[in-house]
Amino acid sequence: MTHPKKSSWKSLINCITLVTLYVTTTILIKMNTEYFKRFVKSETEEIKNNEVWVYTRVSSKNQFDSNHSIENQIYYATRLAEKMGYKITREFGNTYESAKDDFTKKEFTKLINEVKESKKKPFGIMIYKMSRFSRSGGSAIGLVDDLVKTHGVHLIEVSTETDTSTVTGELRIIDSLVHARRENVERLTFTIPGLKSFVSRGNWLGKSPRGYDHYGPRVKNSKFVQGIQELKINEEGRLLRLAWEWKLQNIPDHQIIDKLRVRGLKVTKQFVSSMWRNPFYCGIQVNRFMDGEVLKGNWEGLVSEEDFRTVNDQLESKPKNEYEPYTNQQSRPLQNQLYCGCCGSKMTGYKAKGKFDYYKCLNSKCKSKDLNANSSKKSLKEGIHNVFSDLLSGLKLKETLQEVFKEQMRLTINGQNKVFFEEESRLKNRIEELNRKLDGLDRKYAFDNLDKDLYTRFRNETVAELRTVELKLDDFQTRISNLDKRVEDLVHFSGKLNEIWGSGDYETKVTVQKLIFPKGIVINPVEREYRTSGLNPIFRLIHSFTGDDGDRNKKRTGRNTDPSCLVAGTGLEPVTFGL
Question: Which end of the chain is more exposed for a tag (fewer CB within 10 A), N or C?
Answer without folding.
Answer: N
